[in-house]
# Entry
Amino acid sequence: MAKPKKVSESAPRSRLDKIKDKLIKLGLRSDMDLVLHLPLRYEDETQVYPIHQAALMSGSTQVEGVVTACEVQFRPRRQLVVTIADESGQLTMRFLNFYGSQTKQLAEGTRVRARGEIRQGFFGAEMVHPIYKVILEGAPLPTALTPIYPAGEGLPQAALRKLILEAMARIEWQDTLPEPLRAALGLPAFESSVRLLHNPPPAVDEGALGDRSHPAWVRMKFDELLAQQLSLKRAQTARRAKGAAALPHIGKLSQEFLASLPFQLTAAQQRVLAEIRADLRAAYPMQRLLQGDVGSGKTVVAALAAAQAIDSGFQAVLMAPTEILADQHFRKIAAWMEPLGVGVAWLTGSLKKKEKTEAQARIESGAAQLVIGTHALIQEGVQFAKLGLVIVDEQHRFGVGQRLALRNKGLDTTNALEEQKTVPHQLMMSATPIPRTLAMTYYADLEVSVIDQLPPGRTPVVTRVIDQERRDEVIERVHAAAQEGRQVYWVCPLIEESEALQLQTATDTHAMLTAALADLQVGLVHGRMKPLEKQQVMDAFTRAEIQVLVATTVIEVGVDVPNASLMVIEHAERFGLSQLHQLRGRVGRGAAASACLLLYQSPLGPTAKQRLRTMRETTDGFEIARTDLQIRGPGEFLGARQSGQAMLRFADLETDQWLVERARDAAHKLLESDPATVEAHLARWLGSREDFLKV
Ligand code: ADP
Ligand code: MG
# Structure
C-alpha cells in the first residue's frame, strides 16, 4: 500500500514573516522598538587606502583592487585564496570557510572593496576573512560611518538598517522630556540624537561615538535610565498599595529563641534584623534581599524573622535550592525551635507518599508553623493555613516564577475584594554579594540589607594555588589533616559539556583517594545520587565517620560542617569566581585554621589567572564580587533577566553612575508633578519590555 503523500499544512511562510520572527527575538515589535535599536558600533568605510599604505597601518582598514587570481587551495587545509591588486601593490584575501559560488563571484578581473586587518603573511600582505563587496569602478564611498547593529543570525545588517530607516519615517518624534528638564540637564533633543546615532554625519567625533560619551548617546542613556527608575518607583508604589498581614509581635518565642542561642548576634546581624522587624510590622508586603557573605550567619536572622511571624499568629516557610541545604536548615532550625514548642514541617521531593501527605496535612491545618523544604513546596497540593512570611535561601538559584509561585501560596482565599487581598512578606537571601548600587538599580523594587561582618572567632582561610602536577604533595597534606582529626572536602572538576564525564571523574577520584588514603574513610557525593543516599553520606561526614568527602559541586551551597578545615578543588581554573568563593566558604567555619588548595592545569588563560589570583589574595566576598562583575559584566553576573537589567542596553552602571543619580532625581520629580510625561516616557521606552519588571 502506498503511503499517503504528506501535505504541508501551513502555507509557506513569507520572507517577511521570517524577518518578523527574527525581530521579535531581538525584542523588536513596534516601530519605536526599531528606532531605539541603536548601533553596537560603527565602521569606517569612508576611506580607501592604497594597498601599500594600508599594509603599514594598524587596525582595520579598507582597500580596493581588481582580482588577479582566485583559487581553492588544499594545503594546509581547504581554503579560498584570492589575490587583488591596485597601482601600489597586491594583497591576498584568505577564506577558510567559503561557498563554492564565491569562486565565481570573485573571478579574475572583478573589482572589490575589502575591509579588515592586514597581516604580513608568508606571501606578503594578507587579510583573513575580510568583509568585502563586489563593486563597479568609481562606485561612490559612503560619506558617513556605517552603523553596525546588534542582529541575530540570518538577519543581514542591510535589511535591519532598511527596516530601521523605514520605521524612522513613520514614528512620531515628540520629545518626552519637558523642555526645562532637558535644558537643565544640558541634553540634546530626542529626535536629533536618534538620527545622529543611526546616521552619523561625516564630521562626527568618532571617538565619542565609539565610547558612547557623545551627547547623543548620553541623551539615550539618560532616557533609558529614567524609564528604569520610573518603572522601579512605580512597582514600589504598586507593592505598597497591596496589603500584607502585619506581623507586629516580637513575643515569647522570639525572646526565648534569642536567649537560647549559644552566641550573641553580631552587630551586623542585629542591624539587619532591626530592618526586617520594622518591615514585618507594616501592613504592606516586605520585599527584602538579605545579602551576606558565606558564613556570615543569615540563617539565624531568617529564623528570627520566622519567629516574629509565628509570634504574630502566622506561618512562615523557608525554601532552599537543594535537598542537602534544605535538610540542613531543617535540622538546625528544628533543633532551635522545636524545644520552644514550634511545629516544624519538612517537605521535599524525596519524601515517601505517606510522609508527604502527613506534612501537607500539618501545613494545611496550621499545626506546622514553620515549613522548610525545596521547590517541592511550590507544587500542587501544598496549601497553607495562614502564611505570613516567605523566605527564599540562595534566591538567585530560583527563577522569578518559582519565587512568585511560593508567594502565591500565601494569597488569601477569603472573599475579600481583589485589591484588598493580602500577600505574604518576602525575605530573599543570597551569598553572592552584589554591590549595593548595582542591586538597587538592577532588582526591581527590592530593599537590600547587608550583613557585612563575620561572626567572631573565625580564622581566615588560607588559599594556595598549586599546579596539579603536585597532586601527590596535596594528598600528603590531606592525610596529615585527617590524622589531626580534621576533615577534608575534595571537589571534582566541573565538566560543563558532559554530566556523565563529570560523574566518571568523581568516581575515579574517589577510587584513587580510597587507594591512596587506605587508613581513612573516603566518601563520595554527587548530583546523581538518590536523595536518601546523599543524605546518608552527608550525615556520615557530619558525624565525622567519613574524613574525606569527594564531591561534585553539589556541596556548593550552604553546607555547614565546622570540623571540615581543608578543601581541595581540582581544575579550579574551570570554575567561576563566585562559585570558587562559595565552595571555599564550606571551610573556615570552625575555630581551626583552614586552607583551600586550588589545583590547576597549566597553561592558564588570562581570566583564569585573574580569578585564581583574586582567590589567593582575598577572602572578602564583596571584593570578589566586584572582580567577578568586572570579568563577566553585569548581565551574566546577575543571571538572566533579573528584572531591571533587561531594560538597560545603553547605559553602563559603572561608568554612568552620575547619570543614574540624575535619572533617579528626575524620576522623583516627574512622578510627583508630571504624570503625563511619566506615561509618555514609559510607553516609549518600556514598550513590550514591561513584563520583565514584574518580579
Ligand atoms: P550563611 O550566611 O552562609 O548562611 P550560616 O547561617 O550557615 O551562614 O552561619 C554559619 C555558621 O555561623 C553557623 O554554624 C551559625 O550557627 C554560626 N553563627 C551564625 N551567627 C553567629 C554569631 N553571631 N556568632 C557565632 N556563630 C554564629
Ligand atoms: Mg546559608
The chain has 24 helices and 22 strands. The pocket of adenosine-5'-diphosphate (ligand 1) is lined by residues 263-266, 269, 292, 294-300, 431, 455, 558, 560, 589 (CB under 6 Å). The CA atoms of residues 13 and 456 lie 67 Å apart.
